[in-house]
Amino acid sequence: MPLERKVPLKPGRSLMDWIRLTKSGKDLTGLKGRLIEVTEDELAKHNKKEDCWICIRGLVYNVTPYMEYHPGGEDELMKAAGADGTDLFDQVHRWVNYESMLKECLVGRMAFKPIAAPKDISSTLPEEKKQLNGMLSEREVLGASARDTTPSYDWFQTDDMITVVIYTKQKGMNAELVIVDCQDRRLRGEIILDDHSYLVEVDLDREVQGDFAVNIGEKVGKVEIILKKKDRIQWKVLGLPLESHNTFIRRTERGLFYRKCKLVSKTEVTHDTKLFCFMLPKSTHLQVPIGQHVYLKQIIAGTEVVKPYTPLLPFLPLDFKEPFCQDGVHIYLMIKIYSCGLFTQALDHLQIGDDISVSNPEGNFKKSQVEAVEDLFLLAAGTGFTPMVKLLNFALTKVDCLRTVKLIFFNKKEDDILWRNQLEQLALRDERFEVQFILSEPAEDWVGKRGKISSALLSECMKRSKKDSKVLICICGPTPFTEQGIQYLQDLGYSQEEMHAFTA
Questions:
Q1: How much is the pTM?
Q2: CA 250 vs CA 247, 295, 367: distances in Å
């Protein structure tokens, strides 16, 4: 996943300044409020910094006034100038609500040439038969061979229960791959299958009780969602299918889904970092896999603002016999509060009991990357430490061939170090684990290592347990830290397969 390169913004060009400008009434499109249909030829003409139009998902925006406000800099926007920037946008930050951020810059819609619709092989079947079998059209399934492995669903009922059964047709299903929300009669069940996602989404025919059960047949790949009826009445149909119901598509094409989570605690970790605990609603089944992040969404000055954070454990387990099992109810996030940060200041002002929108998990890290590793190196800067916590827990409990785990933890000052005491306790308890703290702005009495990430420093600190040991290096921190780190590791001869950068 490409890194979003942040650049310093000029004074008066913050997110809040942009929000103020969009609400000032100024004509940001140059069209005096008119919406037009834009041809490909017309779009291509607007490809300069002083006149820049971009298309995202069929909508065209004049991003010229946004140039100086874009955290990624003008050059990043210019990559899509006068063209369709959807793929580029999805690669870098598809989680940003561009419709809200750029609504005052909307020029109009793209004018597309009509395309003949592909023939649907299932059209000869009765509609109710298609729904019962959970069939997808040929357009969505992409041929007979794909249809054999495409998930499907069915449902049945008793006097008290409704059971929705999803046949994933894949082995190795687990709770982390199943996300279910059932609120206000709307049922949404998403199954993650590698880089694809299968979705069942209906407005239920009748009301159900708030809690439900999810049963997973790991070996056969069957998932059951068991709902309790509010009334002992026979349902004629499961409900009204929604637009994305019964679709099997790439995860990047699936819009992010949010649910409201309640803040239940907020504790200080360091002078500027806090551990937030959010509680999932009873009507949600969700577990965040190792190395994946969620997005928090807040409405600030009438504009949706979204930021990614990586959930971690509430503490660092010191007794590594079994992986720490989270309760499936709480999400813990360690967040640095910036004095001038619009988003984190709003977060810090949340009161216990307040709600915030939390998305489904995202990320491309897989447990299989670490399962055969002998030497694991974790390079973290500041809150880039957060994805390392679950990874550390998993490696020390589940990776049998593991010889060493070393966390190289970069910070500015000594009082910036997160969970220092817990990390030092773990190093004493488990001889496989070592932690090294490196400070860029230490006090005079600091006896540990000093400096910033560099090729020489990494060469000195990263030693294999044996000559040809299988290595994985994970890195997370601010974008410049991560980019520099990857370059230094490549210079030292590490391959792409031996590195993983946590980015969002």
A1: 0.78
A2: 10, 19, 20
